[in-house]
Structures are given as structure tokens and as C-alpha cells.
Amino acid sequence: MLSRQFVRENPDVVREALENKGVDVDLDRILDVDEEWRELKGRGDDLRHERNKVSSRIGELKQAGEEAEAEEAIERSQELKAELQAIEERADELEAELERSLLELPQIPQDSVPVGADESENVERRREGFDDRRELPEEVEPHYDLGEDLEILDFERGAKVAGGGFYVAKGDGARLEHALIQFMLDVHREQGYHDVFPPIPTNSASMRGTGQLPKFTEDAYRVEGTNEEAYDDDDLWLLPTAEVPVTNLHRDEILLDEDLPLKYQAYTPNFRQEAGEHGTETRGIVRVHQFNKVEMVNFVRPEESDERFEGLVDEAEEVLRRLELPYRILEMCTGDLGFTQAKKYDLEVWAPGDDMEDGPEEGGRWLEVSSVSNFEDFQARRAGIRYREEHHESAEFLHTLNGSGLAVPRIVVATLEYYQNDDGTVTVPEALRPYMGGTKTIEGHDAVGETKLGDGE
Fold it and tell me: Of the residues 51, 328, 386, 410, which is catalytic?
């Protein structure tokens, strides 16, 4: 979150950020509340000072035998007490409103972020591996058809057991997901990451600390709550990303300078209620309600966050480089920059199975598999995560960053489509073969039950 002092002293900067990010918040109301709160706090301090003087005077008057004057002082002390109580009650109301309002203000984009209205104005920074792609079949079958043909993806049974937006990976499909998860964890472990396996339910305090609440309440799966219209800190949610529990591992803590930079990685299933778009966006496993992902979370000194951001991008890229999948890097413009981010790059892998309107000229489409974000001190301020250089020095807020390393289902999509062969099989990327028991080719499985019979049999 933004500090009160920053909002108070930089209203034009905040107003510009609201406009560029397309966020509708009544900033004037926030400034008016802050001004009234500060006036009341000042008036309260004056009343307490006067009351202390009157209280001291009462004792002096009684000791001097001046009872009439002492009674007048007592009456004045009671008047001051009542007035002070009214002021404090109003100040508490304004304090609560101000805290709620500050949670609705987005992060300020860095100066280098391109200004734009929406995703159409994101800037492509570079492509990797796209000009020397492997030779593909004349017609590349989309992953959702290929997965069913090979009996490694089952959408009908996924819907049967959980509803729309869920799927079952079977046989080599399941092995492929498991292999990708372990492969990603091994790559990032080489890069100095410490493993964390956090709880899947997360409380409201954690969701608020990373910025998911109150902004994205409707997208989250609520497990337990006392009020359908609101939420309490004890309410539980299925985590939308491992960013939430891993960042909050150090909520309300002070780290030491020697602890930084601190790099965690976590594999988790993730849950989101987002409905997605119509058409091919809702087919297959590109946009589903439950998906596996490896997440990287960094805690760093403020002066090092920009350099660490570039390093985090490279660490996410390494997975794509080793899988030899073509990809590109996009810089998000202000209108497509998330609520909490000061700067963000998306890594998008090329999947040739579907021709999309926003795909490359050569066909196929780009799928986001990682968002690498610098939050600066925005999350740390919300979650109370600080550090101090020396034990005797005051603590300050550190910077947090994260990036997916990577989103597993979309890598499965890209692998099935990019590595498929003319005969309908799929070549396993060389980097994954040790994780699949040496399997070089996914050839499919026989159907189970009556579905293995041909039409009319």
C-alpha cells in the first residue's frame, strides 16, 4: 500500500497513477479524510495538554484550600474529558475509513513503464528461439484434441468430478505435469532458491498482505467465512498463487541485512474463479480453475530491486531455454499493469495449435506462462515486512518481487503442440526425459471402459 505521507505529499502522482492504471478511487475523499483526521489529532493533543494542566491545578487549589476554584477546575476537566472522547471517537472512525481507502489505491508505476490503456499497448521487448523453430506437421492439432486422442487429457471426467473448468491428466499426461514441476524446482534450486511447501488454504490477512484482498475478492475461492459480503482475518481461501503464503511467511517480521536477498520457491496447486474468454480460450487447459505452478518470491534491499528484477526474468527464462520452446518477453503498459506492481514483464510461450487473432503472423498464439513483477515496498508495507542493516538502526520496508517459474498447464499446451509429430505422437523435450524415466515419445494410451469401443461396436 501507499503510505499516508506519500499520498498526502504527492496527490498529483497518485492521481496520475489512478488514471494510467484505470482504477476508479475517490482520491479527494481520501485527502479530505486525512486532513480532518490530522486536525482532530492536533485538537486532541491540545485538549490532553490542557486537561493535564487543569488536573495539576486541581491538586494545587485543594491544597491551598480554594475549594470553589477547585470545583470549577473539576468541571472544566470533565468538559475536556467529554470533548476529548468525542474527538477520539470521530478520529477512530476516520482512521478506519482511511485504512480501508488506502488499501484501494494501486501501486505507482515506475517511470520507465510505457503508458497505455490496455494489453494492446504492451511492448514486445524480444523473442527467443522463434526464428529457428523445429519442423512441425503441416497441420498442428490443438492440445485439447490431441490430448483426448492420446488419452492423456480427460475433460469430460474432469467436469464430472469437479465441474466446468477442471480437467484430469492421465498416464503420460500426468507424468508430464509431474516431470515439469520437478524439473522447474531443480532449475531454480540451481539458481539459489530455497524450497517451501506452504499450506494451500490461506487466511484473509495473508490475502490482504499481498494485495489480493479487497481488490480481487470475486476471483478467489472462499473456503470458510462468516459473512458473504465481507471477510474477517480468520476466513480461509484457496490460494490463487503461492505468492500469497510465501510472501506472508515474514509478515510482521523484521529481517536482518545479512538475510537479504532471500529467495524462495514453492510448487502449489492454485485456484481461481476467473471465467476466461469465449471460444478457444475456454477450451482445453489454457484457462482453468485449478492449475499447478512453481512460484519464485524474492525479498531484497530497496536499492537492489531493479537489478534483481532483471535477474528474476532471466531465472524464469532458463526453464524455457532448457525446454527449447520459442517464447517472447512483453513489458506491461500502465493500463495492463497489475494493482500491486510497479513494473512487470510477461513471458509468453508460442503454441502453434490454434490460430488466434493476436497470434504471430506465422500462426499459433502466445500464452503467458510467467509474470515477473517488482512490487517495490507496496506489499511489504501492507504485510509489515521490514529489515534493518544493523541491530541498533531503525527498520525500514524492504522490496518484494515474484515470478512464475512456470505455469505448468500452459507449458503442457506448448509442449504437446510444438513437439507433436506427423504420426500424432509427441516428442518429449530432452530436458524432461530423465524426469519421465527416459521416455522419449508420448504415444498415448488405450481408453478405459466402453469408451475404448469404436462407434457402433
Answer: 410
- Asked whether residue 367 is domain-assigned, the answer is yes
Domain-embedded: residue 313:
yes
368 catalytically annotated: yes
- Respond yes or no: is residue 101 known to be catalytic: no
- Domain-ending residue, one of 102, 136, 160: 102
- 39-53, 244-258, 267-281, range with greatest mean pLDDT: 244-258
Same domain for 269 and 410, yes or no, is yes
Please indicate if the annotation marks 85 as binding a ligand.
Answer: no
Q: How far apart are CA 23 and CA 32, in angstroms?
A: 19
User: Chain-centre distance of CA 377, in angstroms?
Assistant: 14
Is 370 annotated as ligand-binding? yes
Residue 111 within a domain: no
Q: Out of 175, 208, 251, 272, pick the active-site residue.
A: 272
> What would the pLDDT profile of 9-53 be if each residue is shown by its tens digit?
999 999 999 999 999 999 999 999 999 999 999 999 999 898 888
Please tell me whether 273 is known to bind a ligand: yes
pTM: 0.90
Q: Is 258 annotated as a binding residue?
A: no
Residue with cell 486422442: 149
Query: What distance in Å separates the CA atoms of residue 237 and residue 205, rounded to the nearest whole number?
Result: 11
Of 206, 305, 371, 373, catalytic: 371
Q: Which residues form the domain of 98?
A: 4-102
Alpha helices per DSSP H over 124-166? 143-149, 155-162
The answer to the question of whether 290 is labelled as a binding residue is yes
Same domain? 57 vs 131: no
Residue 427 annotated as binding site: no
- The per-residue DSSP string of 264-321 comes to EEEEEEEE------SGGGGSTTSS-SEEEEEEEEEEE-GGGHHHHHHHHHHHHHHHHH
Active site residue 394: no
| Marked catalytic residue, from 287, 308, 365, 382 | 287
Kindly state whether residue 455 falls inside one of the protein's structural domains. Answer: no
pLDDT in the model for residue 456: 46
The domain boundary, picked from 54, 72, 102, lies at: 102
Over the stretch 131-162, which tens digit does the pLDDT of each residue have?
999 999 999 999 999 999 999 999 999 999 99
Give the chain's domain count. 2
